[in-house]
Amino acid sequence: TLDGYTMPHIYPRQMADAFQHYAANGSLGSDFDSLTGQWATQGPMLYLLLRLQTHPLADIDDLLDEYYSGFGVAADAVRAYFDYWERYSMGLRTTIDQAKQRHGVSRFNKYAWISHELFTLDALAEGRRLLEQAAGVLTDADKAVYHDRIAFLGDGLTHARLCVEVATLFANDEALPEDRRAALAALGRFRRSVEDRFVAAYNWPGFQERHSWENIPGYDDPEP
Fold first, then answer.
1. pLDDT (tens digit per residue) in 144-161
2. CA atoms lying within 13 Å on the CB side of residue 110
3. C or N terminus of the chain, fewer CB within 10 Å?
């Protein structure tokens, strides 16, 4: 699960299928590592993975239903949002391999370097449209917690977009250092603004960003 950076890169059914194959064919236990903490963009996959540790043969859709039930009457709309990202992510396999070979990077520590090629602004805009549809299902009479949870997903999408905007500038050799610094500053301000909402654990994207851009002018410059 070290893949994905801050993006909505999810593959819950593929992951669960593999896990359940092991559980049904002689596995004695599990030892889970690599919790990257991208809660707002990869929530269904992380929820499913953790539930499988104690209910390894439970029905996959039943477990996902548990997650989506947390959005009240917007459950189906939120499911459609994450189904979109699952289909999108599963369609990235060739694109990722080509990007890795073209740039000579590892998905483990330099996913940030290619993130803008994988999760385009158009794809993120479609995700935003689906999320707005989910928010539109709720009425003023619905519990505030449901509105807040969809806003939480929206914060995750905003975080991903800001990361893509930074990656786009660092991939452009002609980008001005001041533009890179401004984009980094905007990302930093956003991270601080949602720091207490558990949108993401920032040590992991920071690790990938450091390995992706540490030798590029502007990355280590002080914030303007």
1. 999 999 999 999 999 999
2. 18
3. C
